[in-house]
Amino acid sequence: MDDSSDSGAVVRVSARYFDGRSTRPHKVQVWLAQGQLQIDGETVRTQVPAAQVQWPERTRHGPRVARLPDGASLQSLDADAWDAWRRDTGHVDGWVVALQQSWRAVAASVLALVLLLAAGYVWGLPWLAREVAQRVPDGLEDQVGEAVLAQLDDMVKPSRLSADEQRAIEAAWAEVLQRHQKAQAAQGRAVRPTQLLIRESEIGPNALALPGGTILLTDDMVRLVQNDTRVLSGVLAHELGHVQHRHGLQTLVQIGVLGAATSLVWGDFSGLLATVPLWLGQAHYSRQAEREADAHSVGVLRDAGISPQVMVTLLDRFALYRRCGDALLKPAAAGEAEKPQGARQCAGQAGKGTGKDDKADAAWGLGFASHPADAERIAFFNAAAR
């Protein structure tokens, strides 16, 4: 603070002096003279070099404060008088204080903070999760996958498909995977190891790639595509794309970061790990991740000599399922004529709304949430099949 009082009338202001040892205030007068802050009252008379006084930034409301080097302080409840005294003695607020006093500047700062947080969530967090996931050792990822699978016990049960049905699916996928691995090896590329588990579950027609390479395929998915092993190979090729790109681990990293941030804000880490299966079940891969998995599935199918058109068949079956519901999943005895009445009534509508219903809601559970619109995916797979 400049000591302009050296060349003119001394400007004084009333304040309360606290010695830093008790809460008792002392009424004083303060002024600046010859580089010294003078403090004078009935019980206090002292001076402090002005350069050693700390002047906290001025706020719109509340008392004004000056902190002295010995732990003492000065306070003034008359903010206007204090501010006028400081101005008269040559003090000028910095630009930070000026911005703090402007509601427009505060509003702009809040908006900028919101945009920064949004950008971090949309772009920064996925980038961080991807970088972290790619650097996690395979052994650690396997352990994470085993832990997640163990916690999913309540969501999955042993398959109710016949042993022959399961063997047919496993054999078809093993052949596809073998051809894909051979083609990739010829190009010097490695395919991450996977394990296929077929399970009964209440999550409906679905498939899920866990960290570490475990792929869960539900009985309802098999029923949805009427045991078509070529279509199921397309489903599994899509999930292999998630495994290859480590999308499951990326999702867990993102969930973990968000969960940890929330726990830091609210001060409660309890249940953070216990709810991982629930989070994994409700978390949706980004549309970019789904596009990567779709593109990967095309490569896998081509390596195996299967047309990517099977994925269009899959999407048509999902469109039909959105109209028919669980009636479509009931096993037929011997052909179309013996299908449940509800499935027969809406079967003729297949394809009429494909691509128009872009609801990637909880009905698709773990594996098919947040996919790009059906129309976009169908166009992609049709183009890939040419």
Largest sheet: 6 strands, antiparallel
Number of individual domains: 2
| Helix-strand pattern | EEEEEEHHHHEHEEEHHHHHHHH
Helix content: 40-55%
Q: Round the Cα radius of gyration to an integer and report it.
A: 34 Å
SS element count, helices: 13
Please give a structural write-up.
With 386 residues, this protein is of the alpha+beta class. Helices cover 49% and strands 13% of the residues. The chain has 2 domains: 4-94, Pleckstrin-homology domain (PH domain)/Phosphotyrosine-binding domain (PTB) (PH-domain like, Roll); 136-385, no CATH class. It has a 6-stranded antiparallel beta sheet. It has a 4-stranded mixed beta sheet with strand order 7-8-10-9. Helix 5 (163-186) packs across helix 7, helix 5 crosses helix 10 and helix 7 crosses helix 10 (287-303). The N and C termini lie far apart (78 Å). Mean pLDDT is 79; it is low at 1-7, 277-283, 333-342 and 349-370.
